[in-house]
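Appendix B. One record, verbatim.
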Amino acid sequence: MTRQNPTGGLDLDALYEAVVSWFAPEVLEAVAGPAETETERIARAWLAKGGKRWRPFLAACAFLSFQRRREGEDPIPKGPSVRKGGEAPEDLRKAAVAVECFHKASLIHDDIEDGDGERYGAKSLHAQYGVPIALNAGDFLLGEGYRLIGEIGVADGAKVQMVRAAARGHRSLCIGQGEELMAKRARRPVAPARVIEIFRMKTAPAFEVALRVGTTLAGAGEDLWPALARYGEALGIAYQIRDDLADWSAGAAPGPGTPRGDAGTPGEGGQPSILLSLAEERATGETKRFLEAAGRGSLAAEGSSGRLAQVLADLGVEESARRLLDRYRREAVTALEPLPSEGLRNVLERVVGKMFAGEGARCAAAL
């Protein structure tokens, strides 16, 4: 499903490899110009470091699948050149890098606010350089993203639409992060519905921005946006649930100090976790008090993390979380039904399969 498809026309595996290659230092320099100051070098190195690149990949998928092709012309070049980032349209690469700039800036700020010392299996940026320099690098990346959009060679109206989408996404993300921080400050259990709402505000906007930027660059009209907004929202929620489950499956109970990957996983330090929230909802007595202490970040005794993992297993929260994941995966696909573009619909359905490869079988086993 992720490779050549007669109705979609895009080789998603090749395209994904191409998008990843756009973040090699030499390609970033060609797209964004040389990094001449220490601030630029720090921010550029962070932009090039780690991550799944799903957001720029989504922007590229949306652009290439919607873009009208001349008869017999493939929407993305074949062969090694595309893997080196040399053949994609320059404006597409700028748009994709801009989308990732916004995302990487949010991770810098998120790590500072949550007190996370690790990201991508290494020191987070503020742990490496200190909070002031990290904050400045994050702010620089926000400006860099808007600069790149401003330099794209499209009509001013299209640029306004892209900037507006990015600004709305930025605003929603900050509100979601604020809700998460307030939940942590309140030191009270967070209901599953509120956790999902925080995911909706905090994680989903970056996917929606990527889709909006890609389709706007391709010349798509406003009629596509309601379906794409619902798709991006469901995709973002499913993605965050999957992140919580990934840490659980790796044997790491939600808790402070857990190394964070692409999106990070909130947990015992007070950040909402769907696993911990589901457990708190169904626990009683002493077990409930223990989980509330975990949610407040109050567990200091040796062996507490092991006990937390056992409690979550005993309460069957993994199965419930997988049901939620399956629900939002299905919602993402269903949201695409009104799209008038069969090619775009087909590609975005296949993107769900690629992003959640293997999750279908695991979810089915939990049902």
